[in-house]
Design goal:
This protein is α/β, with parallel strands linked by helices. The chain folds into 2 domains: 234 residues, 2-Layer Sandwich (Nucleotidyltransferase, domain 5), CATH 3.30.420; 223 residues, Nucleotidyltransferase, domain 5. 41% of the residues lie in helices and 20% in strands. The strands form 5 sheets. Strands 15-16-14-13-17-18-19 form a 7-stranded mixed sheet. It has a 6-stranded mixed sheet with strand order 3-2-1-6-12-11, sandwiched between helices. The longest helix has 27 residues. The chain is globular, with a radius of gyration of 22 Å. It starts with a strand and ends with a helix. The mean pLDDT is 96.
Length: 487
């Protein structure tokens, strides 16, 4: 039996999970869960990075007590980073991507280098919190921090550095920065020159599945464990999840469903042209140099943040309560664009939905159920819109959509997605990110042959659910109203 330890950092929590590979099957056991809440100090939103590293230590101790492990892998979301000085010390807590420091940075940088030119160089969609704009904001407003920095490490690489003392930039998470040249797969010297940032700030790029280093002697002594390799799995959690899509043949269309919904497909090569630029579709690096051709959609953030707002108001609804209330309301009364900037920052999402509907001359939802119905249907119709874009760009057809991740527990969203997209939906695995993390560790050690082998194992081990589309004509009519509302 092979046992590996996966750390997965999500939007609200982090987990330590032991992945066991025995008799041709992968099983997961969560041994430690902890909150992953950003901390706002003054006007800045930070990662609580030191406490999170403490939680990694606790996960290692619990894994040791559960029988030990053979390697460690870490995944987080992309774009965020920590800065290390010449003495190897962290300069400050990393800043969270939902911080407001990058507001307006896309427009400002567009005056220096046109967006289209950036896209042609990187193939990455424009999101205000991309590393490119975080660095531009630092260069403009806090240049002294960059002057003191010797290395920039993305969050999974930063945690790996804390564990090993070795600095690398894992390929998948590095591509989220919008600083990787799409042709060479190296740092874009042109963009760094425009930012007036030395390429030496960045650690060497390594392939997903590379060994970063060994767990340091100091940590082994502190935690009472044997030294094991730390693997640079697909550090970007989306690419870890994609590695676990349980489809062995044919064209893959997937939705990695969580706080963000990542809709896309896998390609052997990037697609960068006028059409993909206009549609703002991204080409991210994946395992074995596969391109994740994807579009970010706001996802379950809208539901999670609405629930938090209602809880502040003294109404503690469960997710099951919210789904039930949505089902009790009339369908297709109003729509929002889930990706409208109004819904990006934390706060009163329900009221912002009302304001959006009022501004677009639609029915204004009043009840909790009406707001939830609006969110659900808008997400499903946004999936339909992106699905059409993916097919147009790739020229490929897809017989199914694989929905993976924690969002697949929301059966209403899965059912509506099948109907809106007029395509069979297969859901599972729920623990896609952790399974992808574990699979890459097992591939790195030679226990599993390759990603196709891993997907075959996952398809055989996981319980998958199937949803067939219904009322296609009704959804097609609703789609026209949706497009009108968000245009």
């Amino acid at each position: 039996m092979k046992k590996v330890l996966a750390f997965d950092f999500g939007a609200s929590s982090g987990r330590a999970i032991i992945g066991k590979y025995e008799n041709g099957k992968i099983s997961l056991e969560e041994i430690h869960r902890f909150s992953n809440d950003p901390v706002v100090l003054g006007k800045t939103m930070y990662w609580d990075v030191l406490r999170l590293f403490h939680e990694i230590k606790q996960g290692i101790i619990k894994a040791k007590n559960a029988g030990g492990f053979d390697s460690i892998g870490i995944d987080t979301w992309g774009v965020d980073f920590g800065l290390i000085d010449e003495n190897g010390c962290l300069l400050e807590n990393p800043i969270h991507y939902r911080d407001t420091r990058t507001c307006g940075m896309i427009e400002e940088m567009d005056k220096i280098i046109p967006k289209k030119e950036i896209y042609q160089k990187t193939g990455i969609q424009f999101l205000e919190f991309n590393t490119l704009y975080q660095l531009y904001s630092l260069k403009k407003n806090r240049p002294h921090i960059l002057q003191r920095a010797d290395k920039l490490l993305f969050m999974p690489d930063l945690f790996s550095y804390f564990l090993t003392g070795k600095m690398v930039s894992e390929y998948s998470v590095a591509t989220t920065s919008q600083l990787i040249d799409i042709e060479s797969s190296e740092w874009s010297k042109e963009l760094l020159d425009i930012l007036e940032i030395d390429e030496k700030l960045f650690a060497p790029i390594v392939k997903s599945g590379s060994v970063v280093g060994m767990l340091s002697d100091d940590l082994c002594t502190e935690l009472g464990v044997e030294s094991v390799p730390v693997i640079a799995v697909c550090g970007h959690d989306t690419q870890s999840a994609i590695s676990a899509v349980p489809k062995e043949e044919g064209n893959i269309a997937f939705i990695s469903c969580g706080t963000w919904s990542i809709f896309g497909t896998e390609l052997d090569k990037p697609i960068v042209n006028d059409t993909t630029y206009e549609m703002s579709i991204t080409n991210e690096g994946g395992f074995d140099n596969i391109t994740g051709f994807v579009k970010n959609i706001a996802g379950l953030w809208l539901i999670q943040e609405s629930r938090r707002q209602w809880k502040k108001e003294g109404k503690d609804y469960s997710f099951a309560d919210l789904e039930k209330m949505a089902l009790e309301c009339e369908e297709f009364k109003c729509f929002i664009d889930p990706d409208d900037p109004a819904f990006v920052s934390p706060g009163d999402i329900p009221n912002r939905i009302r304001e959006f509907c009022k501004k677009t001359n639609q029915y204004v939802p009043e009840t909790v159920g009406e707001i939830m119905r609006c969110i659900y249907e808008s997400l499903a119709l946004k999936y339909k819109l992106v699905f059409e874009k993916v097919r147009k760009c790739t020229g490929k057809e897809y017989d199914t959509i694989n929905m993976i991740g924690g969002g697949t527990k929301d059966t209403l969203l899965c059912r509506l997605t099948a109907s809106a997209c007029d395509c069979k939906v297969i859901t599972g695995p729920v623990e896609a990110t952790a399974l992808g993390n574990v699979s890459v560790q097992l591939i790195s050690s030679g226990e599993i042959k390759d990603i196709s082998h891993a997907r075959k194992i996952i398809a055989e081990c996981e319980e998958l659910k199937y949803y067939e589309p219904i009322d296609a004509d009704k959804w097609e009519k609703a789609s026209a109203e949706f497009i009108k509302a968000i245009s």
